[in-house]
């Protein structure tokens, strides 16, 4: 696909030069080809940032950046690819250099803050977000603000930021799940349950939200599975979570029955549940 796109653009550039009359100079031809290459690279960069393998994307942006060291879009692409590859500390260095060069944007500073959070450098992340003007109201900015407020146990701020973030995206499941987990840690179990249900309404396949929902219900001694979409394997895993929650609450006999049901439900041998059940029976 990339070859066809490149060929089509080259033909268009050649036709454009031919249409100018009098024949094009070598310099004009080279400029046209360079422009086409930039367009082609932009398309490839977009592919690398979305569907490409993260490590392949890192290699691509590293290689291309060596040939074009002054291009901020390539630096940005490398930082994002490093994040996708699970290398936030390396991404933070790239974003730091990009911002220091004067080529960075507010979005880059927000990306830098996220890399710092993932590197467990919360104070530095907060310092970066403090430099982002309040007029820069984006989903990622408020999502990170909420996480930082959470880490400081500033619950009112966290709730406000989570609510704003959820309203700034068409796919709020992830931030709703994070908000619910925050409520779970505060032992506000009913509020947490509500947020996990809302997250699953937006993304019925999010297993993390399903498991968190079970934890919130188990903490309230609700030992029946809620009516949500789940596969047979997921059902077994949720029963296992619920069984452990029951044992933690001191409802050992209920927990034992749930663990047995988890073992019976799983389409394969469920080692973790079987081991927990054996420990209870022993």
From TrEMBL:
<protein>
    <recommendedName>
        <fullName>Flp pilus assembly protein TadD, contains TPR repeats</fullName>
    </recommendedName>
</protein>
<dbReference type="Pfam" id="PF13432">
    <property type="entry name" value="TPR_16"/>
</dbReference>
<dbReference type="Pfam" id="PF14559">
    <property type="entry name" value="TPR_19"/>
</dbReference>
<feature type="signal peptide">
    <location>
        <begin position="1"/>
        <end position="18"/>
    </location>
</feature>
<dbReference type="InterPro" id="IPR011990">
    <property type="entry name" value="TPR-like_helical_dom_sf"/>
</dbReference>
<keyword id="KW-0732">Signal</keyword>
<dbReference type="InterPro" id="IPR019734">
    <property type="entry name" value="TPR_rpt"/>
</dbReference>
